[in-house]
DNA sequence: GTAGGGTTAG
């Protein structure tokens, strides 16, 4: 007489619960196959679940096992769908499995199935498949399951379909911590910073206390907005509420402080970290590179390698851009081969850094061959980088070809016409200048005035190109003229951050506080006005020490001044672009 | 019997 199922399944179950590795699992599997009830689907499902889901599991083994099950039950399908979305290289496999399950007709999806397949869709941003799963949620009456709802919300957020995410969010009756975190993270990811911060406030009004995961999203929203005051407040909030400063939250704070100009604070946090992963190291290296602290960035990269943490593609963007900004051509080339040796396949951004590096060093021909040897099709950024380099190098003769490639790729981006127009002007090719303007007009490309803002004592001074409405505009102009004159007298042309630094230091000596305030405001104005001002800020950006100058201005002024928008000149908006370089 | 949310990028 066969043993009751309970007696066979329970030992298998308890063995699997204590199973440490696949070797043991194989033994359990063999034992199971020889046992009297080897046809028990329940026990087989447990073996499958371990292979597919456990950290010590083996998805290939799970696939082989699954293929041998004639009519898998929903639990087994779920294990496979979930297991296949946990692999390091995500694919459409979870979606294919889900479709197979529906076609099999032997198992119907439950709330677990939909939650798992939605996760699979979120990982690869499979928008059209996810929408079908949304329909299935209604069809199978699973749309009120909290896990399916959160899965849908997360899916839309990951696909950057914020309107859909918000409507799913609005329909969730009991919004828990996870639901709030997903919507806040979704808004932060697409740059809807104010919305993210507003939701964070609302969440607390609803009596839901944030945890470290929520805080990562909110802090990253601050980093994107350059909202230092709020970021610091949130840091204090984390301390006050005893929220755990784990690896990811520390990294988010480092990124926020670096992006908001407080690189020392970022470094302090980084140095205090007991465990650092690739992202933590990369954030700090990129932060130092943005601030122009090239030596520190490269030293830190060496320390990273010494601590056996593997760098990734983002780390190398930091390292290569640091080299580009300080003219370290030889080092840049060395890091490029290190990257390849480590098996990191260069992405478009890495090629961009290398071309930038060569152009800044005046090696235009080499940059051009580098582009021609690229194994991937160069994008507009690559051609633009080369053309920016052409502006400072008149001996380079491949401008026409590069210009053609650029305009073919992006015929509606005003920035390109402006760049080419200025490039031809610098070569006194006036016919081409007017041709560019005509072409731009023919394409109906409009320029949206660029703007920037400077915050002093909580008051935001905003400046837009050709806008004279600031109440102190005349006095500000006076300061600008004064600076320009002093720079001209000093014989510095074009301006560099070092020159502005000297001017501001001089200002400190003279202790003219009122003048200093205007200097700070003028700094905001510099970013949108006169050509010379654009050169200054461009140089600052080149040197990567925009915040360095802001800090100097802050010291003179004696209070904290924040440059908010991190010098974002060109912004592609619905086929038109914001651009400050067009007079 | 199984579940949902996190950081770095010119």
Automatic annotation (TrEMBL):
Q: List, alphabetically, the InterPro entries matched.
A: DYW_dom, E_motif, PPR_At4g14850-like_plant, PPR_rpt, TPR-like_helical_dom_sf
Matching entries from Gene3D superfamilies are given as: Tetratricopeptide repeat domain (1.25.40.10)
Any GO MF annotation of the entry: RNA binding
Q: Where is the DYW domain?
A: 491-583
| Record-linked Pfam families | DYW_deaminase, E_motif, PPR, PPR_1, PPR_2
Superkingdom to which the source organism belongs: Eukaryota
- Keywords, alphabetical: Repeat
| Spans of repeat PPR | 73-108, 176-210, 246-276, 277-311, 312-346
- GO biological process terms, semicolon-separated: RNA modification
Report the PROSITE patterns cross-referenced here: PPR
- Please state what the protein is called: Pentatricopeptide repeat-containing protein
